[in-house]
Amino acid sequence: MSNLPSPSLVSFHAATDEFRTGKDTPREFLERSIARLQVLEPKLSAFAALSLPRARIAADAATARWRDGRPLSRIDGMPVGIKDVIETFDMPTGMGSPTHDGNQPRRDAATVFALREAGAAVVGKTKTTEFAGAYATDTRNPHDHERTSGGSSAGSASAVGAGILPVALGTQVIGSVLRPAGYCGAFGYKPTFGAINRGGSHDFQSHSCIGLIGASLEDIWHTSYDMVQRCGGDPGQPGLFGSEELAGPLKPTRLIKLETPGWALATDEARQQLESKLSVLSAAGVQIISRDNDPDLDAFEKSITDILQFGFDIIGYESRWPLKSVAYRDRQGLSPSALDQIVKADALGLDGYRELMKRRVELRVAFERLATKADAFVTLDATGAAPKRITYTGNPSFNVGASVLGAPALTLPLFSDENMPLGLQIIGAQHADAKLFAVANWLIEN
Amino acid sequence: MSNLPSPSLVSFHAATDEFRTGKDTPREFLERSIARLQVLEPKLSAFAALSLPRARIAADAATARWRDGRPLSRIDGMPVGIKDVIETFDMPTGMGSPTHDGNQPRRDAATVFALREAGAAVVGKTKTTEFAGAYATDTRNPHDHERTSGGSSAGSASAVGAGILPVALGTQVIGSVLRPAGYCGAFGYKPTFGAINRGGSHDFQSHSCIGLIGASLEDIWHTSYDMVQRCGGDPGQPGLFGSEELAGPLKPTRLIKLETPGWALATDEARQQLESKLSVLSAAGVQIISRDNDPDLDAFEKSITDILQFGFDIIGYESRWPLKSVAYRDRQGLSPSALDQIVKADALGLDGYRELMKRRVELRVAFERLATKADAFVTLDATGAAPKRITYTGNPSFNVGASVLGAPALTLPLFSDENMPLGLQIIGAQHADAKLFAVANWLIEN
After folding, report:
1. Of A141, A127, A114, A29, which is closest to residue A83 (Cα–Cα)?
2. What is the ipTM score, two decimals?
């Protein structure tokens, strides 16, 4: 991780040993978070709302439980941020849109409720692009304030990357968790479709998910596991599989180098980072499967050259509602980007949508067949460093694949480009999230 | 239909010919609805909120379009009611719970939005049991004000059965559309799982649905079709299949008499009604398959003796959130019934839930295999007349099967018990909703 520029990630997991001994407490951990927030937030604009008094009450209760040796969970007292498309009963859910200013739900989303049940301290709502779509918010990258933090989970990535929070929730339907996590030098996780309950999240398209941006693999795994034990996966889905503890390092036998349409758009420096890593892995005895030596993979790469547009077509149709309903009430409140999306989606129609769903099934079958050939897929997380402007959240060509395929994916802050963070992305088979973490656990050390 | 007590159903479809000629108009149709509402509502308590000025504007616009020969749809100007667990931007969504008094969403649910796009006049929100669960509301049966209208779609059934509305939306996860529809002498429809977009409905468990209660098969089919063209099915689902027009009568070759656990609980009069109908059908040349002559069916009946508890176990687990989140904020606002449900569900846990999901897949496989043997399943819609009290919404043992199986079902107001309406229920294979309507269309005439 030598190339990682000024990584200021602050892990909650790393602090819990001292919670047990009393040398540190969740309340003190929270106060350090708040202190960083107060210094950095004026520069970053990562938060849409704060709930500090309630967070302090939660941290104090957790402090007592850790002291008594009876924490509610591994994340008892952990400060956490919630993307502002996810409902909270104590803060408005603004959706990154003036159409939802002051919108106050009467409940917590399933994940937020589960976090509270596990003892976590919900610090605030993190900024999002408009309805988690393309229209940017004003959040800035903690590694360079002139650059985007990515999107749509902009505030979550910025807050974790800046070391304000150890974990924040995001949502991803194209590349909205992994891309901003990578841009901001954080770990990012997009689970298997349905593995984490989306109830109470605006992001409810047919392959969207609740994802996590965090300071370490442990922070992300513990939070995911402890939430799902309390709120389950999506209704009808089996939920996240795996053990309570993060799986130990698993050296992969074979890895598939997946190019995706992103490869053609990536910077030379970004490509070089991945190639170098693959060389190191190869030297360590890991077999690398690439499109040059595997015709099935080559055929698959060819079949997904248009997958970004394919993903946009799906979510466009699925977003007609609620976007059109919001337009009916408050058209002026929507961005030109959202209004344009409505026009395009209306042209598709139900029959067109059914064709998209059929093609998605075929892609998933092909992907799951490929997945049996190796322990994981590896690729970049983004085409390069975060773009040097605030109004564009970056290209998601490397991220859309795992989203459309419903597959679990992680980004690891191992690379750099233009002296900015860049992620190594690994992707696994559906429901093999725990194994993916095990491989990631090995990759960050090798 | 000779036994049907005072059926006062008022079809919109039946009136549209005169909208074309100008002898009648959607605005006059609406005013007749409102006049009945004003007389009957003090007795029925079917509505939670009204939006009459906006409904009149919609009806006037539809009147002009019909006059010009350019209605937006077959339901342009149709007065419609919305169950109060489904979001509306112009009326609060109260969930039948004091915890949601004055809860004002910023959007319409997908179906409500689609209704408005099709020109329908949204008259009001119809009363629901608490969060569409077991705890009754105060709505009364239009055929006997001392009796329940059933639940949870209580107000929708009462308003349609009373002839106030031609169509009202409900939701069903156990028996919440078909049972109240049958009790109130209306037609009821529960679609194939996922066939009508649930976005913006509280009822989001893994086999719940948006359903319709209506005055005729045409009213229900037109409304369903015209909504789905505008809002699709659930994200990822292909949506309702079928043609624009209601399919003509289809004489079934074979029908399966399904007993369900309800048969053992049904009144003699109710059973007799079904047996008589089956005799008539048999005499008309329809082959009746029953558990006495089909071992597979007998095995299936034996496998579903506990399906009501099975259904409650599933929705119990899936309802921990949001019920527990509401309890966290306002425990006093929940009924003892809801609080008891939380306690039971907490005991199940994620592993227990996964076992339920496995069993549901097995049941669906067995059901779909049976479905290939006949054109439809026929059974009762309820164990007998609506119970003679307001605090109990009746036994859903006949309804839970189609819900758990994700299969389409219709109730037809063909029977009676205690001089009250009782429904004939027919159930089809997943995605064969249009064929089910065709069989129903034949059954109501034969």
Report:
1. A127
2. 0.95
